[in-house]
Amino acid sequence: MTGPGPTPEQERAWVERVAGFFARQNGLPPIPGRALGRLMICDPPEQSAAELAAAIGASRASLTTALQVLLAGGFVEPGHRPGERTTYYRLADDPWTEVTRRRMAALTSFLAVTGEGLDLLGADSARATRIRRAHELFGWLDSEVGPMWQRWDARREHRDG
Amino acid sequence: MTGPGPTPEQERAWVERVAGFFARQNGLPPIPGRALGRLMICDPPEQSAAELAAAIGASRASLTTALQVLLAGGFVEPGHRPGERTTYYRLADDPWTEVTRRRMAALTSFLAVTGEGLDLLGADSARATRIRRAHELFGWLDSEVGPMWQRWDARREHRDG
DNA sequence: CAACAGTTTCAGTAACGACTGTAACTTATG
DNA sequence: CATAAGTTACAGTCGTTACTGAAACTGTTG
After folding, report:
1. pLDDT of residue B1
2. Which of A35, A41, A150, B36 has the fewest Cβ atoms surrounding its Cβ within 10 A?
3. Which of B11, B100, B113 sits opposite A141 (nearest CB)?
4. Whose C1' is closest to the CA of B29: which nucleotide?
5. Partner residues linked to B77 by β-bridges
6. Is strand C less than 7 A from the beta carbon of A87?
7. Which stretches are transmembrane (chains A, B) (predicted)?
């Protein structure tokens, strides 16, 4: 007995939550977000563009765009079956680490802006105090995230490798 | 001799870079972003809404909205001078720590979504493997950011207090 | 090489969000 | 209580973006 499993309604609601999260967090449009959410729970894990379109209620044309976005972002991977022309898309093995890494890098990229600001105003001038505050935080943050991801990689290697 | 200082053109360009960053990163509209950038380098540090409007080339009405956004986000603080009715806005002492803290919290908030997904599919089911991958990363990340900010607070206290 | 399944491109549309200008409101001053 | 500086609320406009439907394209099968 494997239990009843989620209802289609529950699945839809969860997919919508995923889409909402990536819309807010990564600026992903609704349909790519829904396709991503769907690919996280669909059974089987591989789905054609047409199947995904039907599942989330969008046009096939929209799925093309959505899948391009997801492919470019490294979220999904294309796959083929012998004797079939259809491309079956599946969630990448672990898109999350890379995506999150990128987001944090983007966060600390403010360091370049503050650095240029300090150059402009003179790093030691009183007027640059406000910028320096920001510069210190983002510089420190930048020095923290490197080791942090090293710890993650070590942990992953320990579990998988 | 304190040097020539930046040209208005250079200031404008830098302000635009700040605005661009916060538009991409925090979803801030252009004008709030520009106002924020301006408040980072303006001299004197306190500015009225009218002054800011002139400096970044926006209407006063827009500045009202922009300043509300910045006040709500904790970026700026209002100030008054005796005998004057004008409100002078200045950059908060250190908005960056709090803002960045919020952003990282938002990042790890995906944990709630993956958690619900695991409940829905059954945490140990084969179908939940994809969700579990995400859940592990964000759970770990969540456990990392707490201590990380503690280190920052300690560092700050050591320097300031 | 013809037929066809599937994918992609593109033009058009609808909805959304930001910004402006004006008008109403608030509050300190004489 | 009248005045004036400044702030706020609002209606309208402009630009952008996501999405759809139809047509063009690609590549495999018989």
Report:
1. 56
2. A150
3. B100
4. C18
5. B90
6. yes
7. none
d(CA B34, CA B47): 14
Domain for residue A38, yes or no? yes
Probe site for chain B from A22, A42, A120 (most B CB atoms < 10 A): A120
Q: How many CB atoms lie within 10 A of CB A18?
A: 25
**What domain count does chain B have?**
2
Chain B residues with beta carbon closer than 8 angstroms to that of A5 = 121-122
φ/ψ of residue A93, rounded to 5: -55, -50
Provide the total of helices (H) and of strands (E) in chain A, helices listed first: 7, 3
| Domain span at B119 | 95-160
Note whether A74 and A16 are same-domain residues: yes
| Residue (of B109, B161, B103, B9) closest to A20 by Cα position | B109
Q: Are residues B82 and B103 in the same domain?
A: no
DSSP 8-state secondary structure symbol assigned to residue B50? H
Examine the pLDDT at A17 and tell me if it is beyond 90. yes
Contact B106 A11 (CB under 8 A): no
φ/ψ of A3, rounded to 5, equals 85, 170
If you write DSSP's letter for every residue of B21-43 in order, what string do you get? HHHHHH---HHHHHHHHHHHH-S
Contact A40 B121 (CB under 8 A): no
pLDDT at residue A11 is higher than 80: yes
| Residues B111 and B149 occupy one common structural domain | yes
Contact A41 B138 (CB under 8 A): no
* Residue from B98, B99, B76, B100 nearest B88 by CA: B76
Return the C-alpha torsion angle A83, A88, A94, A95, nearest 10.
140
